[in-house]
Design brief:
By secondary structure, the chain is α+β, with helices and mostly antiparallel strands. The chain is 20% helix and 36% strand. The chain is built from five helices and 27 strands. The longest helix has 42 residues. The structure holds copper (II) ion.
Length: 499
């Protein structure tokens, strides 16, 4: 905060709030939160539309799977640590008149960082509760609305002119007794004082404007400076990729500490390397932490080319970060894939062929996107359902958890401005979900990140997986859906045009 230290306290505080807010980004270009889960006996689909600026108002939409819900209370809290146990007074979500299973509400998010919205349900089956992690972060500066601007301009002119006349009247009539008329000399002096006052007021306005513009420019520059943390890469020994987070401002370095990230579904980092620009190859890898908060991965064999990097980490407060970058690689002769690492390659995205609903899998089977009819729309919460068939077209019976869950889906816009790593529980980070559930403090020992409803290893999963999510804006997207069957990770790829 060096830049603002010398200025007045109010501006410093305001700038601090705004700057801190701007430095925080979750996912990439996909700020809203989609979550599906159980509040006790009630199954809910919760959407949190986060405000563009913080403090700001978040819109909460809750769809109940059953009809026996009587009332829903919502309240924002810190995800973990100090303050996570002391919620303010909750608000009631309002039941829709047209649809009794749909509730909406709005909540003020007063601070940036890892928050959660606690949802408390009361109904025929008793009470239930769940918490949805919400990464709170400003996305842009807001323009002043015209009516407010007009009102403020009017008040400014009124006050400025009023000041001049008050000064004049004070000189002309300030010493008069009742009934007395001012002497001609006084009227002349009043005019002089009014002229001087006008100059002084104009000067104050001019300086005020200059000060305001300087602040606005500073702020605007900060907006441009604060980008998602950049992934800085270095290739060592021909096939080892090292990744560091590069903050572009001292501010940012205080926000995320790569040395203190916590595991998210079993790994400290989920690294996605996507062939650019066609999105025709994808690797999902799990680098190890090395000294100094950097991460390193021995790359598998890869063809030469440019690769987009999205690297997901979760900080110890439960705030999810995605490092963004790209790297040009020569052909890599590397190790075979092992463990949870996976890959896919196929045809490049082409805008002509958008909207696929069936994908070939590596083992000869198919994955089917059970799309609802009609065009896909941006900002509409949806359940993305996929079913898996074997090579004879029969539903598979050997689905198993992949990193603890039925599936992992990556939604990537073809211009690479959107990246969202989504699970059957939604777009929330699994580590944050665990923190929200336990309400645990930010202790480093916490083994967060494993899903709460871990399926038994022996019981096969159903041949279907679904992901609650909504596209953040219109455009072309590629969806990578990753499942595991018969000990092998497979990726179904779907293209979507969103209106
Ligand atoms: Cu995942």
């Amino acid at each position: 905060m060096k830049r603002v230290r010398s200025r007045t306290r109010i501006v410093a505080v305001l700038a601090m709030v705004l700057a801190a807010a701007l430095s925080l980004r979750a996912h990439v270009g996909s700020p809203d939160v989609y979550y599906e889960g159980d509040a006790g006996p009630y199954h809910l689909f919760v959407t949190v539309l986060v405000p563009q600026v913080i403090p700001g108002v978040a819109e909460i939409q809750i769809r109940c799977a059953s009809q026996d819900v009587r009332a829903i209370e919502i309240v924002p809290m810190r995800l973990s640590g100090a303050g996570s146990d002391y919620p303010p007074t909750p608000d009631f979500a309002e039941r829709s008149k047209e649809d009794p299973q749909f509730f909406t509400g709005s909540l003020w998010l007063m601070e940036s960082g890892a928050l959660k919205v606690r949802v408390s349900v009361d109904g025929a089956k008793g009470k239930g509760e769940l918490s949805v992690p919400v990464p709170s972060a400003a996305q842009k500066t807001l323009k002043m609305e015209r009516p407010l601007g007009g009102l403020l301009t009017f008040l400014m002119v009124f006050l400025a002119v009023g000041m001049v006349f008050i000064a004049g009247a004070a000189v002309r009539e300030g010493n008069l007794r009742p009934g007395e008329t001012p002497a001609p000399g006084r009227a002349r002096r009043a005019r002089v004082v009014m002229a001087i006052t006008a100059v002084v007021v104009a000067g104050i306005l001019y300086l005020g404007r200059a000060w305001w513009s300087a602040e606005a420019n500073n702020y605007q520059r900060d907006v441009n400076i604060f980008k998602p943390p950049a992934a800085e890469t270095k290739l060592v020994n021909g096939n080892r990729l090292e990744i560091r987070a590069r903050g572009q401002d001292a501010e940012w370095s205080n926000s995320v500490k790569m040395g203190e990230v916590i595991p998210d579904h079993g790994h400290l980092m989920h690294l996605f390397l996507i062939g650019a620009p066609g999105l025709d190859r994808m690797w999902h890898l799990h680098p190890e932490r090395i000294a100094g908060g950097a991460f390193g991965e021995d790359l598998p064999s890869m063809p030469a080319g440019r690769y987009q990097i999205f690297a997901d980490v979760v900080d110890k407060n439960g705030f999810p970060w995605t490092l963004v970058g790209n790297v040009d690689l020569a052909q890599i002769e590397g190790k075979a894939l092992a463990g949870d690492d996976s890959t896919w390659s196929g045809t490049a995205f082409s805008a002509q062929g958008v909207d696929t609903s069936a994908a070939e899998l590596a083992d000869g089977g198919r994955m089917i996107w059970k799309r609802e009819t009609g065009p896909l729309k941006a900002n509409v919460p949806m359940d993305f359902k996929f079913s898996v068939e074997d090579k004879d077209g029969k539903p598979v019976t050997d689905m198993e958890p992949y990193m603890g869950m039925a599936g992992h889906a990556e939604f990537v816009s073809t211009d690479l401005s959107v990246f969202a790593h989504v699970h059957p529980a939604g777009s929330v980070s699994m580590a944050a979900l665990e923190l929200a559930r336990t309400g645990a403090g930010a202790s480093g020992e916490l083994q967060a990140g494993m899903p709460m409803a871990m399926p038994m290893a022996s019981a096969p999963l159903p041949p279907e997986v679904s992901f609650p999510y909504g596209f953040p804006h219109p455009g072309d997207y590629r969806i990578f859906v990753q499942i595991k069957r018969g000990g092998r990770v497979q990726t179904g790829v779907f293209d979507a045009h969103v209106q």
